[in-house]
């Protein structure tokens, strides 16, 4: 147990199967030769006969496990022990890896050893790697080895050493790849190997979570998601092409059956994702899977298999494979699939349990308005039928597609409203019925349907409404009126539901008028404190606060004030306490109200000077109870005119912006005095605005990003101080240019 050897792979060197390339030849140069000589489809497949493990070996690895699990050894000593223990596996790798108990110890050894011992182990067991990968216990050992190799790949510079090891594993797999692909354990290992060769995180090998797929289809941003599926990690694209090519050659003759196999389908899905960016190999793989020819531009050739594809999508494994093909297909191929394969079959596929997911994928990956039109012709008037069949996902995907491409938005909203509200029924029922879409359409008496007590809000129904509230305001007035018509107790239930609260947030973020938003917020009065300590409602409270006027904001803070201690113990509580300045309100309520008013007043003045459109919107959404600080229209027009004149002059001369103030008849001394004075003023303004987070450069007209940066956090209160006489600095500064002008003209 205590044997240590300073030489690399001392124990592995005696095994000819573990000899490392020493002739300096590139692995790439041998790939073509290996393809013709190594992988013969007629190669005899020898079943693996597992030999028993002798008691001494079992005892040895039991002691090793006890030593490694102790906390007395440091990392360096642990690495040496792991390496020495791996040497004892020589010639018995397959037997030990497939042992239920010892396999766990091997996993620990492979995670803790150095790169040399790790590669030595893999090369030594390469000939039996397929047997290990397809075993219940061995597959975990194989995946652990690949994961450990992935970590070393990002840290080590010995790429050729790692590449040689991976080549041996690929050669072992392609002897009989179908058995590995169709095995429930081998499928996992093979997908991990594909990820490793492509440089993708190995976590991707286990597939994408349904929540992530749903979020992508509904155009919601997912933290950490990568839309183009490109990864900057190290990979071996030549080995990837080699392995994929040999796998396809072995599966080509029986591909129609293999695509129906669950585990083989998962491997093929990973192959497609791994080849994104490599158009020739990607198109070649797709044409093998579909059983038809595709030219280099992505155009499909005539084939009887094309007509059979809509029929096959009812199979779960095949439908998932088609979804990935749609996801990774170049634009030309996507257009071909939609126009020539799935056209006229969309409604039929939507009615199928698995086929409807293919329709969702088609809608989610539309590239242009023509694609929307084609899908809309078949499904646009069938929203009610789809919802009755329980295919709300198809409706949600189509709504998200129209919102993404800004095409047929009005028609989409009208179709959805008509699907859930017929004839002379009150429009108030639209939002409740969508929130509980499955419950409503499965009801036997829809006319007398009422709010279901105790039922959870439907996830897809929530996503539909979230998408709807991202549409232009003129399209969603019906939905806005419906959600503001909810009863107080109904709105409280929605606000505490994980899916429902997101609908309320989406409405408060929408483009509808502030009056409608505040109408909704007022209904929550008396429950703001309760929602602030709720794990779901806490996120919505911030949206309510941002939308509210001054009196409503004070109401929100006053209801949260008694719960300060409880808020501080929640996840979102400390953030809300700081964001709303609840401690400041507790100390001096009047000062708190003045700060809130000052923040909005400063925003108004900024928009008024640098963005007429935004000023109008802000005036409309203003929460101030009085109008004492509204900017004077005539004065604002004069300021805008001066800015526009200065900008026009600066484009035609080399003189800096704001250097054109005053008359052209100024004397040199007057110009110099005016320039110095203006520069001093601008410097002062930049200093004051810099305290608020504004960039020192001149802000662009209508810059939303600038405004958001300026008024973030509690820094707004610094930007608009008062002098000793109680007058605002802003007013004093506005009067300076006119005085200077009189002085110069004199």
From TrEMBL:
Keyword terms of this UniProt record: Repeat, RNA-binding, Translation regulation
Biased composition regions of type Polar residues, renumbered to the chain: 642-655
UniProt xrefs under PROSITE patterns: PUM (PS50302)
UniProt-annotated stretches for the region Disordered: 1-48, 622-746
Cellular component terms per the entry's GO annotation: 90S preribosome; nucleolus; preribosome, small subunit precursor
Pumilio repeat locations: 523-558
Composition bias, Basic and acidic residues: 622-641, 670-692, 715-724
Residue stretches of biased makeup (Basic residues): 1-10
UniProt record, GO biological process: endonucleolytic cleavage in 5'-ETS of tricistronic rRNA transcript (SSU-rRNA, 5.8S rRNA, LSU-rRNA); endonucleolytic cleavage in ITS1 to separate SSU-rRNA from 5.8S rRNA and LSU-rRNA from tricistronic rRNA transcript (SSU-rRNA, 5.8S rRNA, LSU-rRNA); endonucleolytic cleavage to generate mature 5'-end of SSU-rRNA from (SSU-rRNA, 5.8S rRNA, LSU-rRNA); regulation of translation; ribosomal small subunit export from nucleus
InterPro entries cross-referenced by the UniProt entry: ARM-like, ARM-type_fold, NOP9, Pumilio_RNA-bd_rpt
Keyword Chaperone appears in the UniProt entry: no
Pfam families: PUF_NOP9
SUPFAM superfamilies registered for this protein in UniProt: ARM repeat (SSF48371)
GO molecular function: RNA binding
PANTHER family: NUCLEOLAR PROTEIN 9
Protein name per its UniProtKB record: PUM-HD domain-containing protein
Organism per entry: Cuscuta campestris
């Amino acid at each position: 147990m205590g044997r240590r050897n300073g030489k690399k792979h001392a124990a592995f060197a005696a095994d000819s199967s573990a000899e490392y390339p020493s002739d300096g030849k590139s692995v790439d140069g041998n790939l073509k030769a290996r393809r013709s000589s190594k992988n013969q489809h007629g190669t005899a497949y020898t079943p693996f006969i597992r030999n028993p493990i002798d008691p001494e070996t079992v005892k040895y690895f039991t002691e090793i496990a006890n030593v490694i699990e102790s906390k007395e050894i440091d990392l360096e000593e642990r690495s040496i022990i792991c390496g020495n223990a791996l040497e004892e596996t020589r010639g018995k790798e397959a037997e030990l890896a497939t042992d239920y108990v010892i396999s766990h110890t091997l996993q620990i050894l492979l995670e803790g050893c150095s790169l040399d011992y790790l590669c030595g182990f893999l090369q030594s067991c390469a000939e039996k790697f397929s047997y290990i990968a397809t075993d219940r216990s061995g597959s975990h050992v194989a995946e652990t080895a690949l994961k450990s190799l992935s970590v070393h790949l990002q840290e080590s510079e010995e790429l050729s050493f790692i590449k040689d090891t991976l080549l041996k594993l690929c050669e072992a797999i392609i002897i009989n790849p179908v058995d590995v692909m169709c095995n429930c354990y081998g499928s996992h290992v093979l997908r991990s190997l594909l990820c490793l060769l492509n440089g993708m995180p190995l976590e991707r090998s286990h597939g994408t979570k349904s929540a992530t797929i749903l979020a992508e289809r509904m155009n919601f941003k997912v933290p950490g998601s990568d839309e183009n599926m490109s990864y900057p990690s190290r990979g071996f694209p030549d080995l990837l092409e080699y392995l994929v090519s040999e796998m396809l050659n072995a599966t080509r003759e029986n591909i129609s059956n293999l695509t129906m196999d669950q585990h083989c389908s998962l491997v093929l899905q990973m192959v497609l994702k791994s080849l994104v960016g490599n158009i020739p190999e990607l198109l070649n793989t797709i044409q093998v899977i579909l059983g038809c020819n595709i030219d280099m531009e992505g155009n499909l050739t005539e084939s009887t298999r094309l007509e059979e594809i809509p029929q096959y999508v009812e199979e779960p494994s095949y439908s998932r494979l088609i979804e990935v093909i749609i996801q990774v297909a170049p634009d030309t191929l996507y257009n071909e699939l939609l126009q020539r394969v799935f056209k006229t079959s969309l409604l039929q596929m939507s009615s199928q349990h698995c086929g409807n997911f293919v329709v969702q994928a088609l809608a989610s990956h539309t590239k242009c308005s023509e694609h929307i039109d084609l899908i809309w012709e078949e499904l646009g008037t069938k929203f009610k039928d789809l919802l009755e069949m329980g295919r709300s996902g198809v409706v949600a995907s189509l709504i998200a597609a129209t919102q993404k491409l800004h095409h047929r938005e009005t028609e989409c909203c009208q179709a959805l409203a008509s699907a859930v509200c017929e004839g002379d029924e009150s429009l108030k029922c639209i939002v409740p019925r969508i929130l509980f879409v499955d419950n409503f359409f499965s009801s036997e008496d829809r006319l007398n349907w009422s709010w279901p007590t105790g039922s959870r809000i439907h996830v897809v129904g929530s996503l539909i409404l979230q998408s709807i509230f991202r549409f232009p305001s003129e399209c969603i007035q019906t939905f806005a009126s419906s959600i503001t018509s909810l009863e107080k107790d109904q709105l409280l239930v929605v606000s505490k539901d994980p899916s429902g609260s997101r609908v309320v947030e989406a409405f408060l973020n929408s483009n509808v008028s502030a009056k409608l938003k505040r109408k909704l917020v007022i209904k929550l009065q008396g429950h703001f404190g309760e929602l602030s300590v709720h794990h779901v409602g806490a996120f919505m409270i911030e949206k309510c606060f941002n939308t509210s006027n001054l009196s409503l904001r004070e109401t929100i803070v006053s209801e949260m004030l008694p719960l300060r201690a409880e808020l501080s113990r929640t996840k979102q509580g400390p953030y809300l306490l700081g964001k709303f300045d609840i401690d400041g309100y507790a100390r001096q309520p009047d000062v708190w109200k003045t700060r809130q008013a000052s923040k909005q007043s400063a925003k108004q003045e900024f928009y008024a000077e640098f963005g007429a459109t935004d000023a109008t919107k802000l005036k409309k959404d203003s929460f101030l109870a009085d109008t004492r600080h509204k900017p004077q229209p005539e004065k604002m027009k004069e300021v805008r005119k001066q800015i526009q004149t200065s900008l026009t002059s600066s484009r035609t001369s080399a003189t800096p912006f704001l250097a054109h103030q005053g008359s052209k008849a100024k004397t040199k001394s007057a110009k110099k005095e005016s320039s110095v004075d203006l520069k001093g003023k601008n410097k002062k303004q930049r200093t004051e605005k810099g305290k608020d987070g504004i960039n020192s450069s001149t802000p662009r007209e209508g810059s939303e990003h600038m405004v958001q940066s300026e008024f973030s956090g509690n820094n707004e209160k610094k930007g608009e101080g008062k002098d000793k006489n109680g007058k605002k600095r802003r007013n004093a500064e506005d009067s300076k240019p006119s005085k200077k002008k009189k002085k110069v003209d004199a």
